[in-house]
Amino acid sequence: MKKRSLCIFLAALLLISGTFLTSCQSNNTEKEDDIYFVREEKSSAGRFYLSLSKESKDGEIIPKKKLESIFNKAVDIMDGAMDLLSEDDPDSDVAKINTRANTVLNIRTATLEELGWAFELSEKTLGLYDPTCGNLVSLLEKSPEATDEAITLAATHTGIDKFTLSESSVTKSDPEATLYLGNLREGYALSKVIEYLKESPVKYGIASLNATAGVFGEKSDGTAFAIDIFDPQSNEATGTFHIYSGYVSVASSRLTSTRNMKTGKGEGSLAHCAVYSADAKLAVILADLGYFHGSDKMLEIYDKGELSFEAVMTEKNKTVKKTPKADDPNIYTEANEKASEE
Fold first, then answer.
1. What is the model's pLDDT at position 276?
2. Residue 54, class by beta-carbon neighbours within 10 Å (0-12 exposed, 13-18 middle, 19+ buried)?
3. Burial of 5 (0-12, 13-18, 19+ CB in 10 A)
4. Is residue 289 within 8 Å of 302, Cβ to Cβ?
5. Could you tell me which residues come within 8 angstroms of residue 74 by beta carbon, excluding any fewer than 6 positions away?
6. What is the DSSP pairing of strand 237-243 with strand 246-252?
7. Which 3-state string (H, E, C) describes the chain?
8. N or C: which terminal CB in the chain sees fewer CB atoms within 10 Å?
9. Which pTM value belongs to this model?
10. Residue 330: CB partners within 8 Å, gap ≥ 6?
């Protein structure tokens, strides 16, 4: 369950005003022009890609120096968000929780809010999403070929019931239980970047981190951002998301290095899974869950009606399954209007 692949969009090409953004390639083919300011950064968080309209919300051209400053600020925000939920940074709340049991730990409000969201999501996803699988992660990082018996033993130290959250603190009852927020961190970091960009002078644009992209603002021609989902093996289009805001995340054997949170296995049930949501964290996590657990489980989660998302799921036999409204262009406007109201 390490970071998702640095190559975003081996399975997705992002189309903005006729320009393909393909940051999956080692040498980015898109050139900066009179319309877009384009930058890419490789960091501990992975590959971060930004394409910004040079036009400001006031209709003026934004100076290059200002755009560079906006990009650098976005990188700082991304790194800060990743650090907040890191299990490796000894100063983070997550690391402190992981190393201390039967102790009431006062933690940052932001961390507590994300843990509460993660625990709630675990229940809404039939327990398939498990933010307490750190013990299993650690085992598989040290012993990739761990036996089924070792995996089963590690799994006994997982479960949200081993953590108690209060208004300002966390208590862990099992000394061996540890948190892992890897894919949540990526979605959280990207959402913070998009929040910042929405408040910047930039009229519209796109930001991506590893295998997830988010869009913001309104394009000059008023059309949606079209995100075409491609089968990474055949390079055939399997669906398109036309979105005005929100996020799309893709998971496949070539786009994720995470593992099944319940079994520790790395083999997915699908060829790949693409998820749209107004919530970046939800898009990242559900793409991984769909890839590992298959379309039937995803549709079961969808039918519960507790989570707002759409998905395009490609089986290994190339059969494509979609959530009921995945082809409905209105759902993406409605979902984002609802998210903005909340």
1. 94
2. buried
3. buried
4. no
5. 48, 50, 193, 196, 197, 207
6. unpaired
7. CCCCCCCCCCCEEEEECCEEECCCCCCCCCCCCCCEEEEEEEECCEEEEEEEECEECCCCECCHHHHHHHHHHHHHHHHHHHHHCCCCCCCCHHHHHHHCCCCCEECCHHHHHHHHHHHHHHHHCCCCCCCCEHHHHHHHHHCCCCCHHHHHHHHCCCCHHHEEECCCEEEECCCCCECCCHHHHHHHHHHHHHHHHHHCCECEEEEEECCEEEEEECCCCCCCEEEEEECCCCCCEEEEEEECCEEEEEEECCCCCCCCCCCCCCCCCCCEEEEEECCHHHHHHHHHHHHHHCHHHHHHHHHHCCCCCEEEEECCCCCEEECCCCCCHHHHHHHHHHHHHC
8. C
9. 0.85
10. none
CA 60 to chain centre: 33
Provide the pLDDT for residue 221: 86
How far, in Å, CA of 199 to CA of 82, rounded? 21
Give how far Cα 108 sits from Cα of 173, 250, 292, Å. Answer: 20, 31, 32
Amino acid at 168: S
pLDDT band at 13 (very low <50, low <70, confident <90, very high): very low
Q: pLDDT tens digit string along 92-142? A: 999 999 999 888 999 999 999 999 999 999 999 988 999 998 888 888 888
Q: State how far the Cα of 128 lies from the Cα of 78, in Å rounded to an integer.
A: 27
In the structure encoding, which two tokens stand for residue 57, read together? 């919300």
Check if the beta carbon of residue 118 is closer than 8 Å to that of residue 182: no
User: Can you read off the two tokens belonging to residue 261?
Assistant: 């949170």
> Which of 224, 229, 227, 264 has its CA nearest to residue 244?
224
